[in-house]
Amino acid sequence: MAACSVEELLAKAEREEAEKLKSITVHKELDVEFDIGNLLACDKNRIESRDFRGQKKEDFLRSLARDNTQLLVNEIWKQPTERVEEAIVVKLPDSLTPLPREKPPPKPRPPTKWEEFAKLKGIQKKKKTNLVWDETAKEWRRRWGYKRAKDDTKEWLIEVPETADPNEDQFAKRVKAKKERVAKNEFNRLKNIARAQKIKVPGVGLTPTAQQSKDDLSKAVSVAKTSTASVGRFQDRLPKEKPPKNTGKKRKFEPLIGNFSNEKQKQLDMLKLMDSKKPKLDITKAVNKQMREEDREEAAAKYKKGAGKKGRKGNMPGKGKGKGGKGKGGKSGGGKFGGGKPVGGKFGGGKKRGKAGKH
């Protein structure tokens, strides 16, 4: 019995080992259809109900999924490969099965200014090694980051240049220059993002432009003055300097601790107004509104009347075939408009004919 049990255990261990180390070659009655672009495999082989019922459902499904996945992986590695950053990747072909999308496919990222310049000049990106030799430490160190080679921040002594101020702190100057570089890089990064999104770069009038207007310069001056600790309260002004425009008003808040009578009165007035049945009417505002509407209607009526007179033709005396031009009125009156009977009122002399040339 002991020998049988040992043999059974060995046979079970062999089966488990064989289960773990299955062959990569899988045989199917019908070939599995692949869509490598979508990493899709369609198995049209018939599933025998006896095998499905005889084995455990989970074991049968796990075995079937393993075989189909192995066939998909075999088909993937038949595609062309390349090495990218110490890793082997496969170039997938175009997908054959159209799949619906909730949103349209993302557009390719537009190139930055440096990428456009590099493409124009033919500059190619070269891969740099991460480690460089540090002469000071006599060892290989990282090119960037923590414990990098040629780390000038660890220097305890800095030589003062001949053109620099001898009393100037060179360590503080170096820290300030680094902060400015970091800020400039961050600003360029945000500009690239705004340019990719096709939106305007947010600014306060200090961004460099080709031609700055008067408003931009005044805004820049106001920003520079209010960038102090006192928000420009103690900044001196020029004799004829005008206050900045569109700066906004400072909000005022009631004190949190103190006399609450004003707040109580405001709340009571608001409740009284809400509880009143008749709405509060501002007579001055209502009268002004009515007067503006009347003036607008009167101006519209005058405009329509003037437009109607302007469109008529042939009403002027002395033109066309009217009586005032070559008729009776032409004998008596001198000048452009005759003084005959047909032309009376405004231009003619009526029944009483005047002297020639005087009207």
Automatic annotation (TrEMBL):
GO terms for cellular component: nucleolus; preribosome, large subunit precursor. The keyword Nucleus applies. InterPro entries: Ribosom_reg. Residues 226-261, 288-359 are annotated as: Disordered. It comes from the Eukaryota. Its main location: nucleus. One of its GO terms (biological process) is endonucleolytic cleavage in ITS1 to separate SSU-rRNA from 5.8S rRNA and LSU-rRNA from tricistronic rRNA transcript (SSU-rRNA, 5.8S rRNA, LSU-rRNA). The keyword Cell membrane does not apply. Residues 330-348 have a biased composition (Gly residues). Keywords: Nucleus, Ribosome biogenesis. Residues 302-313, 320-329, 349-359 have a biased composition (Basic residues). This is Ribosome biogenesis regulatory protein.
